[in-house]
Write a structure and sequence with these properties.
This protein has 247 residues and is an alpha/beta fold. The protein is 41% helix and 17% strand. The strands form three sheets. A six-stranded mixed beta sheet has the order 1-2-3-6-8-11, with helices on both faces. Strands 7-9-10 form a three-stranded mixed beta sheet. Strands 4-5 form a two-stranded antiparallel sheet.
Length: 247
């Protein structure tokens, strides 16, 4: 039985972690199937973005501890926790969070480019309560997203905050009423799809680079030689919507 479902909605791939009986906790099967879904996203030129969510109003409770105790790994070599947190994706990924995004679930959201959250969602990194640390990107990413002392409160207390509070902290892009996160995330994905795919990929590559200035110079050179940049300029001059080819 598939534990990760995919559905194409226009040019967006909706990816749903589907283990509601385990609050969408990540085991080896979820990690493998999520990595495969992301490969499908990257390899299909007609897909421009993806939305990641969880079944039955829960994003993910994080690592499946019962599976881990049996020796299962929720990580994919080179791709990180859930096959996502260390993956270098060219296309935008949006997390749509309802219910719990705890531990590794929160780290999956942090591994996305944008986050949409229901106002009553719960974000937390409770690893320290179990003798662990948020090693799937939480310790590294969270202090770069919000002020230092607020990030340390998450990491050292393990206490959760609501989606509304996450919005106040600037941790999420949109806060929605309960049940609306996926719909709003899909709307955001449509907005992203209006832009040039090569430019979106270049932005992502530069942002994650160790030497962003050098990478930016390289990416600008490539973009200026692309068909899409000529199309963008021509469409502007002709007052029409551009037709991107990704070339």
């Amino acid at each position: 039985m598939s534990e990760v479902r995919t559905e194409r909605i226009g040019s967006t791939l909706l990816i749903t972690i589907d283990r509601p009986q385990a609050r969408n906790a990540v085991n080896a099967a979820v990690a493998t199937q999520l990595a495969a879904a992301l490969d499908d996203l990257e390899s299909d030129p007609t897909l421009r973005a993806s939305v990641l969510t969880g079944a039955e109003n829960t994003f993910s409770a994080g690592m499946d501890l019962k599976a881990a105790l049996k020796g299962e790994s929720p990580e994919i070599p080179g791709r990180g926790f859930g096959g996502l947190t260390e993956a270098e994706l060219a296309k935008p990924l949006i997390a749509a969070v309802e219910g719990f995004a705890m531990g590794g679930g929160f780290e999956l959201a942090l591994g996305c480019d944008l986050i949409v959250a229901a106002d009553d969602a719960k974000f937390g990194l409770p690893e320290v309560k179990r003798g662990l640390i948020a090693a799937g990107g939480g310790v590294l990413r969270l202090p770069k997203r919000i002020p230092h002392h607020l990030a340390m409160e998450f990491l050292l207390t393990g206490e959760p905050v609501t989606g509304r509070r996450a919005g106040e902290l600037g941790l999420v892009n949109r806060v929605t009423p309960a049940g609306d996160a996926a719909a709003v995330a899909l709307q955001l994905a449509e907005k992203l799809a209006e832009n040039a795919p090569l430019a979106l990929a270049a932005v992502k590559k530069i942002v994650r680079a160790a030497d962003p200035k050098a990478v930016q110079r390289e990416e600008i050179k490539k973009l200026m030689q692309s068909r899409d940049v000529r199309e963008g300029m021509t469409a502007f001059a002709e007052r029409r919507a551009p037709k991107w080819t990704g070339e």
